[in-house]
Fold this protein.
Amino acid sequence: MVPGFVRRWLAAILLVSFSWSHLPALGMQSAEFQVVVCNVENLFDVDGTALFDDYKPEVYKPGHLLTKLQNHAKILAMVNEGAGPDIILFQELEADQTPGSQAFDYGQFLQQYGDKKLADMLAAPIAAEVKDLPAAAFLLKALQEEGLGQYQVAVAEYRPDPTGRVVAHVNATFSRFPIKKATTYHTPGARGILEVIHDVEGSLLYTYNNHWKSGASDPESEPIREGNARELRKRLDAVLANDPNADIVIGGDFNSQYNQREAYPDMRTTGIQGVLGSQGDEEKIRSSGDLVYNLWFELPEAKRGSDVYQDHWGTLMQMMVTRGVYDNLGIQYIDNSFEVLIHEGVNAQMGTRLPIRWNQLGDAGGGYSDHFPVAAKFRKVAAATERQWLPLTNPGRDALSGGASRSVDFRSVKSANVPPLRKFATDREICDPRNLGHVFLIEGRISGERPLRIKIYDQEYGIWAFDVEMRKKIYDRLQVGKTVRFYGEISTHEEKWQFVVRDLSWLDE
């Protein structure tokens, strides 16, 4: 008799088989699959126990969880022409504080709630057993409801930090392939690294799911990230000592720039480059097996960015590989397939492409994450008699541009197809959490100053700029009683709705 978990896995493969294409690789046939790295920005459950005040019951509602689940599932369903990723490395799931969560049976959970929708499960009154479900279970259910089939799930072991620091998150890896083994490697002061060994049609693929200590620019926190890197490096060395050509994918939110050393020259050493060995010479790893290739080098510098801090792009979300994925045995990287999952008007602002981050306004909230997911494609190659190296097109050459980060191009809003605010028929439709962070073309009469205000339908909205000098220029140009047109980002301040102007060019409409 076929074991139950095997039957479930076979069913999942049948559901998603249409997402695989057969492509030539060094003269052989292969099956293609996609790996995605995704930070879900504080995906907490609803058991009422949380280490952050923002996620306690009086603030964090079941409707917030439902919105967040559906939004992330929506973005992931846009991968692979609707088929979704085959392996997902998630970060920032709540470390479940309830007893017994480590032994959770995700297959049984899907069977138990197979005839129930998430919306019904999270509708009041919520059953006690639903409140006790971990965040990963809700996420698994959301992906299934979005039509992505079933995944096997591995969640990192949660361990209270011995240094006394608050570690509220764990990583989770979802896989359409059988998971042979999952192990957590702990680092003091940081989240555990999750190693998962996947069986991809008889070949082993190692994935390492990371979420390193926050504070990329902070020299005082870099030693903790170096600790993350040492723990990961130690495990990589052990695997590569056994098989120098093991197929390894390293991903996560590293809270480090891909060029951390150049970006912050005051740091004497860095975890990502100095300890782990991340670098940008794609061919070098063939002869130097201890190095890893950072897939950010697959993209031109103008497209390197997964997150924004102080109006500059960062590359905290990363994916790296070892040399094993460049040969014709087992798992093979599809050259130049690395991408950032940016969908303007959905999880990204039109024009600027800023991330539409999560908000908990009202009973449902809105938005996605402060980090864009990153993705890359791989293939399982047929058996070969001898090892050959994958021919590369425009291989990375480790050509860093220095430490200067790329600033957000706010002027690009002018050439984007930004929708008019008047597409909403009422003020109530405008004041919807789903609109926060999005930019619109605004038309109305300036109705007051100190603070500057504009009237749309029957409600007044503030007009704001973060820069003081820009704010003065805006006040000079937008005079009371004048009917104006300009671009504005919907925001709130002290529970009042407002439009944020990010650049003076936004007034030139």
About this structure: The chain has two domains: 4-381, 411-507. Residues 1-29 have pLDDT under 50 and may be disordered. The domain at 411-507 is CATH 2.40.50.330 (OB fold (Dihydrolipoamide Acetyltransferase, E2P)). Residues 241 and 290 are 10 Å apart (CA to CA).
